[in-house]
Write a structure and sequence with these properties.
With 112 residues, this protein is mainly alpha-helical. InterPro entries: NAD(P)-bd_dom_sf.
Length: 112
């Protein structure tokens, strides 16, 4: 789910970015869902990191996703504030939303 919902779009954008930058009317449209809203994540820390639009980076998103995957793998994800249901979908969509905001700031000449 995270591979498809977050890393898929991220890698596709990385590959297409040079062509987009040379385009007359470049656009990036990422499709997310209501599950990606930060209010769906119990963890205050996650919401704070992902929601900090001015200081957020792709690297911070990747770190948070790696933390989620570790917590999920060892079965502690719910006790650490991750969503108990649809966890991977919620976290990956929130991460995609964060990536979209980061890219919009990083590449103002591209309509994102």
């Amino acid at each position: 789910c995270i591979r498809t919902n977050y890393y898929g779009p991220k890698r596709t954008i990385e590959v297409l970015l040079p062509m987009l930058q040379s385009s007359d009317s470049p656009r990036i449209v990422n499709v997310s869902s209501y599950l990606g809203k930060l209010k769906n994540i119990p963890s205050d820390r996650f919401r704070k990191v992902i929601g900090d639009v001015d200081n957020h980076t792709e690297e911070k998103t990747d770190e948070i996703l790696n933390e989620f995957l570790r917590d999920f793998k060892d079965g502690t994800f719910v006790s650490k504030g991750w969503p108990p249901h649809f966890s991977a979908n919620i976290v990956s969509k929130a991460a995609l939303n964060a990536l979209t905001r980061v890219l919009a700031q990083k590449y103002p000449s591209i309509m994102i």
